[in-house]
Every structure is written in C-alpha cells, then in structure tokens.
C-alpha cells in the first residue's frame, strides 16, 4: 500500500498518466458538488444579499443638489436593464431572457444556467433606443455569458457568444471593447501548469464581429511588468488577474492624462491590485500602477487627469463600512477626494461596484452589495438615493445586487424613442386638464 501511495504521488507531481487526469477529475467533482450545493438556490449565490433596509425606490431626492437626468441600471435578479427618472419611475425597460438568445451548439456555453441565475451585468444605451448588454451566469465557471444588442423593443439585433464578463465600453467609432475569459491549462512562467481562468481583451465591430483577441496573462508575462505575476496570491492562482474593467481612452480622457494616448484602454486587475494602460494596436502594456486600494473596480479617467475608482476593501473604519470611492492624482498618487460612508449610512460592497463623476461635480455610486444607488456631493452629502425595489427569498428579506448604473441626459435620446420632457409650465397645464 505504501508503494502504491508513493507511485500515485510521483505520477501526480510528475504529471504522468493517470495522475493529472485523476487530479482534474477530482477538481471537477468538487466544482460540480459546490455548484449543486451552493448554487442550487438562486438566493444562496452572490447576486442576492440580505437586505440592509426595507426601503424601496427613491428615498432621498434633494433636487437643488442633484444632476438631473435618467439613470440606466442593471440588477442581479433579471436579464433586464431599466431606465428610470429622478423619482424612480421606469421610463423604459429592456428585457430578454438568456434562454431566448442562446442557441445550442453555438458558442462555448454548453449547459447555461437557468434564466433565474442569469442577469445583465453591464449595458450601454444608444440614442435610438438600442441597447448593448453583457450577460453573466451565477454559479458557473466561466461565468461570462456573452454580449447582445437589442432594439428598443428588446428584439435581438445580434449576439456575440464569447464568454464576456464584467464590463464593456464603446469607442467613438462604434467598436466595442469587452473582456472574455476561458479555462486554460498550458504552462505559463511563474504560474506553472494548472487549470485556471484567464482573461482576454476582445475588440468587436459595431455589428458584433470579433476583430481582435489578446490573451492578457501571457502578454503581461512577456512585458516589462512580468514580475507582477509573481505577486499573484496562492488563493488566486486559479484566476490570476480577475480583470474587471475595460475603459476606452478617448481624446478627452487622454488630454490631461500623461500616461496614455487616444485609442488605448484602461484595465483593472483585481487579483494584482493593479490598474494598467494597454495599447490594442501594439498589444503592449504602456503603464501599470498600484496604490492604496484593495480589490478595486471601475477606475475612470477624469477630465482633469485624475482617476476615480471603487475601492471595495480599502476602508478600514468598520463604523463606516469597508468600501470607499477615491479620486487620486496618478502623478503623485495623492488621494484628493474620497467618499467613505458614515456610521449612520455605512458604505460597503465586498465585490462589484462602480461610480460615475457627474457634470455638476457629484458622484453617482453603485453600492452593489447594498442594492442601492446614491448620488453624493463633493462634500459627501447624499443628494439622491435609490434602493432596489425588488425583494425575494425567505420572507422577502433578500435584495438583488445592483450590478451597474450610469446617469444619462434625457436629451441624448431621439425624440422618436423618448419624447422630450415637458417644461414645468406644460406639466402644470396638463395636470390641470
């Protein structure tokens, strides 16, 4: 028995048949068991949380302090995107279950999760009412489910079956930048050889055709920043980058940002606590930095050249919550502004989360785990708050995560899609009639 045990250990370490096959079968069995036990109930995954408050809809609206507009958001409970006004009323809704898009034998998703486990994670709206949306499947690996373009009536215009996840961005020329991932098991310096989830940067045409695909792990490993891969935590070797942001750098963003040029993209690697500039044209990393953040999401380049990001676990004042939004100067790494919550309004989202700097200087924040959106002033006061109105689970005490949100000007939409909002005098006249 000792000899058999020793022989088995040698085969596993030396990757001699059938050692690797047995090890992978064991890993697959554990993954299948976890999916069956932990993700059999949709409320047991990470797209539903225990509600922190029973409030629903708009709970704060200081109209003299807010940036008026429409808010586009996605939620963990549905394959839908909602456009709401400042009162929280739904102006338009796009909805298309993933089962109505996926075609068996097309793409890389052989057995997608049931529709209640699939939601729209990210979306972008067009003036005519079209919507590009990214789907994710909870309890699956890879969990990226692809990108779809819908018309205003939620009819499918085109779909991209690549395993797109987290976030997308659209360049002025209409090209779409997405992140995809897939399981690979070839040997990579530092990371060794074991099955892992690797990320790719993909460029799509405006019609959803794949134009370019770059493997980010090996590209980083062949760059001057290769030593960053040595800092991948052991617990993250199975997902060594966990890329969660791609932002196209247009002319306006590049103007005051000395570390990038127009046409490059900003990436965020959560596992490395790194944000980086990547040039799709040369397929090279041109700038990489770390800072005083932990498990970050959604770095945004501001017009003044600063970077605004969601620091998920970087606030260490437990009374305020573990998260914060920070604005920092990338040339000095000085934090020039932050929102940390308060003991009365703790702020915490362990995963997910994003923010948007508005034209009036306020910041729209998606506190995903809290299931709410909030607009805060530069002084840190909450001028507007919207709590997800959906509830579920035992006693309806569970709330779906807020996946993503963006404030939009109503004027950006064609009048055929959204009629212009009546003036106060017109609204008063209509009400009197």
Explain this structure to me?
- With 433 residues, the chain is mainly β.
- The chain has helices at residues 2-14, 19-38, 216-221, 251-255, 424-432; strands at 48-50, 57-61, 70-75, 80-84, 90-95, 118-125, 131-137, 144-150, 156-160, 164-170, 176-184, 196-204, 210-215, 243-248, 265-269, 274-279, 284-290, 297-301, 307-311, 324-329, 334-339, 354-357, 363-367, 372-376, 382-387, 398-400, 402-408.
- The protein has two domains: 1-38; 46-419, TolB, C-terminal domain (Neuraminidase), CATH 2.120.10.
- It has five helices and 27 strands.
- The strands form seven sheets. A five-stranded antiparallel sheet has the order 2-25-24-23-22, with no helix packed on it.
- Helix 1 (2-14) packs across helix 2.
- The mean pLDDT is 91.
- Pfam families: Arylsulfotran_2.
Q: What spatial form do the alpha-carbon principal axes imply?
A: globular
Output the radius of gyration: 23 Å
Question: Which class do the helix and strand fractions yield?
Answer: mainly beta
CATH architecture of the largest domain: 6 Propeller
**Number of distinct beta strands:** 27
Low-confidence stretches are: none
What is the total number of structural domains?
2
Q: Strands of the largest sheet, in order across it? A: 2-25-24-23-22
The named CATH superfamily of the largest domain: TolB, C-terminal domain
Mean pLDDT over the full residue set? 91
Helicity range of the residues? 10-25%
Distance between the termini: 91 Å
Organism: Litchfieldella rifensis
Protein name: Arylsulfotransferase family protein
